[in-house]
């Protein structure tokens, strides 16, 4: 009799535990932070992620998708209304619903959506919008893809989401008990800088990034007909792995290992990282990327086995044109179009050459301007040398100065358009280092002084 009661107790306990687990909801927030046809990869990645979550039975009302949504119908797209993520892959655009489009895709809206602030969203965009309306039993999965810089993830037009603002929002969600556990996959150059030394380890949040705090991520999957890179090593790796995996058996850590391997190919090496509560990486993917009761292992509607590499070494100005760094995508795309331009008219070839020359000039001037700016800001050096500032890899410790410096520089030097030319953001580490050690007035005065001298700052 005692044994029977003991078995009955265990059965009832199991039922209670199942009810408790299934009472929570899954929420997914997907962000494509880039616009323009050359950034095709960003919106292709986000549509792939959207379909993957739908295929895995996440309720559509619990998926929020932010995308500028200009690539599928861009005049340069030879297949209108079409987005693919690998050559020969399925069209991901039909049924890819965007909840926030065009000018609604901003850091401010993103943070309100993430923290469940419905009224805040309405004030910003003038209408009701979906938010992560999560509670204490819920699991939240966030995936973001775009360009970035040290301490920033970029939204359309180089509007920065700063690492301090993102992490403050995450801490706010923890204080408000708005999730049980949360996972973030962030893909951009310098994406590790969004969490390194900032994301607490004790608030049940786990994040992976496509690179460490000081390096680029890399592109993949050049399409000769569309003349763009369709995806990224990190994004394609985790999504195609999710499409074919048994999510109830594969863990977050196992997927992280898959991604690390994919990001170490063809001589282009980035270092995906893990941050936050690393004990969470032992949990299965189903906790975050599927709705358990609806998910069926083997649902792989988007999966196409494809190698991320595209053949032998193929470079321009030291840039790998098979797997270029994400922030070099404009230069790599233009160079590759020119190399493969046998069927183009002489006029179109000359246009590509002119565009390439201009981008290389912008890259050169951005580097030389940064050196001059550092020299001007160190008129009172405070124990640091120019080399210290130009080569140091410090974390952001004076966020207000850094934000103000980026805003002033963008306003004073529109010719070095960091929204159009993400490679110019490689110099932002010097701004961080200056702000960490010099008075903010010295940094601002240096920006004012040096940008006045550079003709390219006025060349739009």
From TrEMBL:
InterPro entries: Legum_prodom, Legumain_prodom_sf, Peptidase_C13. Residues 1-23 form the signal peptide. The keyword Signal applies. Residues 351-448 form the Legumain prodomain domain. Keywords: Signal. The keyword Phosphoprotein does not apply. It comes from the Eukaryota. CDD domains: legumain_C. Belongs to the peptidase C13 family. This is Legumain. The gene is LOC101849354.
